[in-house]
């Protein structure tokens, strides 16, 4: 089954105080690290951002939000809408250490579900989850009805949760799922990058 990898890069980076996708780890912007990994592993890679000029120079294929200004639910919606393939791995632009075998594992479990979503620290991880295009009507409904909290999409989606115990076979979930979204996380990511990049 072919998979589209979608990088969401339409946020405000208010915690980092500069565009976190451009934070440098091991000499490269986090966005470039993710883009390279996605292009190597997925059948198609797309980036969802309303600022295409930032990412075009990296050679990214960019689509904007169809519902601009509504946050990450709109980013996932645009990713699924624009993806060439039915299966879409959607990830934030601040996760340099995602494990691609883990993504294959999520994909292997999609058959009977609209999406497969990891759970870490008792929280679903919608921004590192595998979605089918069958999610689109639910996402459109959420956006049209002002239901913009990411976690609420799962009230209506037929989803499979992958518990932390199963994620651990791919490495330390706290590192694999690390969000480099503030200065503290950036320093930590720079310290452990050698093990991943
Ligand atoms: N396409 C798109 N992506 C978004 C949008 N809002 C957030 N994202 C992305 O979703 C991921 C998670 O976003 P957050 O970390 O919760 O928010 P953020 O605005 O990027 O950062 P903070 O302002 O620090 O919360 C990041 O990769 C963002 O770039 C949006 O409106 N559209």
Automatic annotation (TrEMBL):
- Cofactor(s) named in the record: Mg(2+)
The terms describing its cellular component in GO are:
cytoplasm
Class of this enzyme = transferase
Q: Which Gene3D superfamilies match?
A: Spore Coat Polysaccharide Biosynthesis Protein SpsA, Chain A (3.90.550.10)
The MobA-like NTP transferase domain sits at 5-149
Its EC number(s): 2.7.7.77
The record's keywords, sorted A to Z, are: Cytoplasm, GTP-binding, Magnesium, Metal-binding, Molybdenum cofactor biosynthesis, Nucleotide-binding, Transferase
Q: Where in the cell is it found?
A: Cytoplasm
Substrates-to-products reaction catalysed: Mo-molybdopterin + GTP + H(+) = Mo-molybdopterin guanine dinucleotide + diphosphate
Choose any GO biological process term that the UniProt entry carries and state it. Mo-molybdopterin cofactor biosynthetic process
Molecular function terms in GO for this entry? GTP binding; metal ion binding; molybdenum cofactor guanylyltransferase activity
Name the residues that bind GTP. Answer: 8-10, 20, 65, 94
Q: InterPro entries from the xrefs?
A: MobA-like_NTP_Trfase (IPR025877), Molybde_CF_guanTrfase (IPR013482), Nucleotide-diphossugar_trans (IPR029044)
Q: Please give the superkingdom of this protein's source.
A: Bacteria
Q: Tell me which residues bind Mg(2+).
A: 94
Family affiliation: Belongs to the MobA family.
Q: What does this protein do?
A: Transfers a GMP moiety from GTP to Mo-molybdopterin (Mo-MPT) cofactor (Moco or molybdenum cofactor) to form Mo-molybdopterin guanine dinucleotide (Mo-MGD) cofactor.
Tell me the domain comment.
Answer: The N-terminal domain determines nucleotide recognition and specific binding, while the C-terminal domain determines the specific binding to the target protein.
UniProt-listed HAMAP family: MobA
Protein name (Swiss-Prot/TrEMBL): Probable molybdenum cofactor guanylyltransferase
Instruction: Specify the species.
Output: Syntrophomonas zehnderi OL-4
Highest lineage ranks of the organism? Answer: Bacteria, Bacillati, Bacillota, Clostridia, Eubacteriales
């Amino acid at each position: 089954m072919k998979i589209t990898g979608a990088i969401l890069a339409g946020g405000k980076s208010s915690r980092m105080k500069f565009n976190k996708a451009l934070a440098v780890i091991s000499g490269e912007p986090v966005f470039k690290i993710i883009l390279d990994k996605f292009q190597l592993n997925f059948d198609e890679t797309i980036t969802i951002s309303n600022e295409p000029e930032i990412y075009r120079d990296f050679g990214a294929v960019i689509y904007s939000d169809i519902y601009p200004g509504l946050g990450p639910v709109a980013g996932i919606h645009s990713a699924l809408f624009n993806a060439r393939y039915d299966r879409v791995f959607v990830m934030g632009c601040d996760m340099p250490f995602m494990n691609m075998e883990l993504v294959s594992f999520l994909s292997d479990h999609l058959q009977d579900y609209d999406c497969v979503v990891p759970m870490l620290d008792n929280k679903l991880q919608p921004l590192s989850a595998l979605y089918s295009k069958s999610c689109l009507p639910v996402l459109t409904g959420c956006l049209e009805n002002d239901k913009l909290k990411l976690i609420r999409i799962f009230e209506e989606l037929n989803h499979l949760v992958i518990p932390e115990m199963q994620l651990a076979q791919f490495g330390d979930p706290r590192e694999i799922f690390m969000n480099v979204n503030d200065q503290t996380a950036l320093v930590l990511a720079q310290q452990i990058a050698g093990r991943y990049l």
